[in-house]
Amino acid sequence: MTNFQQGWGAGPSQRYDALAAPFRPIFARIREQAIARDLDHTLPAEEIGWLRAADFTKLRLAPELGGQGATLPELFALLIELSVADPNVTNALRAHFGFTEDVFHSDDEAWRQLWIDRIAAGQTVGSGYSEAGANPLGSQSTTLRQRDGQWVIDGEKYYTTGSLFADWVHASAVDENGDVRLTLVPAGAAGVAIIDDWDGFGQRLTASGTTRLDNVALDPSSVRSSQVRFAYATGFYQLVHLATLAGIARSAAIDLAEHVASRKRVYARGNGLSAATDPQILQVVGRVRSIAYTTAAIVLQAAGALQRAHDAAFDDSLDEEGRKFVQDLSELEVSQSVTVVTDLVLEATTILFDALGASAAKRSHGLDRHWRNARTISSHNPRVYHDRNVGQYAVTGIIDTTRPGVGVPTDEQKTAVSAH
Question: Has this prediction a pTM greater than 0.90?
């Protein structure tokens, strides 16, 4: 059955169900063992392999390159469906789809063609930006140096989501001039160690742990000539998280309905001889399902804004200022979605237990994974800043386009803030 037939709403395009049809059986297979993988800490390497074999990682490429030419709303609708199956898998592929956008928007034609060809060949990319510890805010501890005529990268990354499953690690580093550069590190190269040491209570299977880079030699084509990323990068990466949350809510709604439908025991103070006929229980089920429906709709609305930002980059009728305005608005639309989607999904994954008895807390049911995953996803990029930025725009007309980053403020940065 299609999403429309199940009451989740039509897809973002007329062709969407045809686009999704080859992947839905794979999503179903992935979901079958999601609880078991979570309980046993079995990484979804095989499941990601199924998606690669089905060309899911090429979705945004043109059909002649093995892709589907998927629009951003179509991509995000599929990511919601994938997150119903297992949000760990969506998060593991987040960096790859973001890198694909980088490739589309690169001004370096030779570099762009090289990486389009590699993505078309089925190669995938994992994350290597973040660092733990005392790295300076706005900079990196990882270094990139030229030795004996070749580039060499050294350092340690954390939150390297998806890299354990990927062919390449998209890693940032500081070069000899003090500039942050972006590199593509072969995941299997000598000196690369990718470690599954992420110990979060949610999103346990994304391999979002440590990657160590010890004197790793890089081909010149693996060092990007520019650190400029695609204009809507912040909104894109944030919206992947929101799509994941929407998928978690839908998965929770499906699980809850199944548990209520099969539940035999009732409470004496209840309102029926079965949970399935108790109006108060049905109210909870309806609330959770309505949240799942609404959050997906919000995500697809924001995905349309990102599509406009993508299209603006190639619209010759727009000048630079007009192009930037469309792109900044896309960031605003995503920010306007963040706290609402997050709050709703955290509510849904909490109140679902109100429709069930104490047995719902059994680990074997896996219902707790929905809240754990949602709470963890919600912590990656603090939502508390988004409402402030939206309010700033509403009052002043200024859109905050500050790129996210984490680190320890330098003395110079502290002095500048104090002086201000």
Answer: yes
